[in-house]
Design goal:
Layout lengths: L5 E5 L6 H13 L3 E3 L1 H4 L5 H11 L2 E6 L13 H11 L3 E6 L21 E2 L5 H11 L8 H24 L9 H13 L2 H11 L4 H8 L7 H14 L4 H17 L2 H5 L1 H11 L7 E9 L2 E6 L3 E6 L3 E7 L8 E3 L5 E6 L14 E8 L4 E9 L5 E9 L9 E9 L2
Parallel strand pairs: 1-2, 1-3, 3-4, 4-5
Antiparallel strand pairs: 6-9, 6-15, 7-8, 7-14, 8-11, 9-10, 12-15, 13-14
Length: 410
Amino acid sequence: MNSSGQIFISYRRLTSPDLARSVRASLKERGFSVFMDVHDLPSGSFDQKLLLEIGSASDFILILSAGSMDRCINEDDWLRWEIAHAFKSGKNIVPVKARGFEWPPLPEELKELPYLQAVETSHELFEESMEKLAKLLKARPSPPPARRLKLLLASAFALLLAVVTWVVIPHTDRQFGENYNLGRELCFYQDQWKQGVTMLAQKGGWFQEAAAAELQFPEKSSELQLARLWLAAGNRVGQPDKWHCYRRARYWYLAALDGPDAKADTQLAESIKSELTHVPLLPAKVIFKGQSNARETIAVGPGAIRWRSERGGGPFEIVGLETPPQPFRVRPGEQGARNFVSTNVFPDGVDFSTARVIRAEFGGKNAARYHFETRRNAANILGFVLQVEEKNPDRHDGGFTFEITVCFGN
């Protein structure tokens, strides 16, 4: 994959192959690394390889022409699976719509699609639309030839250094094949641990012992044993995998604290709490601010942020992200929602179970309050919902301002 990020193109073969090929060709001419199944899919298991490609991509382009989404209401539709996997993986999804496309009824897992920022295409203004598309991508094109040569020389030196390090320092956490990669993707990025550990238990490098123990729980392993195994794995691997291992270790330490043995044995409970304090935490911080006329509901997960305004206001801002979105407004008195992809916004491996409000400031005419709740979505991925609202919901005569800081980790 291109070090600047790869782009995955998803399309319906019966309705959109020509537009998909044109988009692929235009992006490749601009220096982007692009994956499209008929051109780039190697031999092997079709479905697993596609899911792996989506998981490793930075951007997911969805080609839409008349009829493209009609079959997505069917649970066994492959295009629906691709899109759902992109949502679960937190990809930057950019729809590219041809003339004549209209949204049909969508299943619940795809309800957010019409609200994403899309690119409209036409034969007359195709290049202009591709310029707009390029600006919406997280991936970056390859550098021009002169700079590419300098980077190549630097890469060669880095490779030599890596080879020396590989020989001098024992290292067994290598790529063991598709099961390893898919297991890592399922566990670390989709929180599908039940399916993922089955694959990592086969050939999982530093993760294999902990994954195998999870398969034997609760018959042959305990919560405390699993916590210690994932902590040990995290101490051996590099970033970002270490933070995902630590996150799993905390999960099992908390499960052990909630278990009958710890509840019956005060000394054991104190020992578990002491061990838990030694599990490293990855710090992160984000600030939500703006002017509201009634209520703002902000749902945040590892892959996306959805901001819903009940009666408008603004400008609303999200501060502290690596790639912050532009401030936005919603017309006074109207409902409105904005969706933002948060991949590469929060540090890879940040533990959402540690999210908490550390500061809340309000101003303006009306008194306000906030409600903060961690929760899991339909895909069992942990996140949180922050709601900011007037204390007196019957008053809409000036609104209020707010600035709320949410902290992760330390």
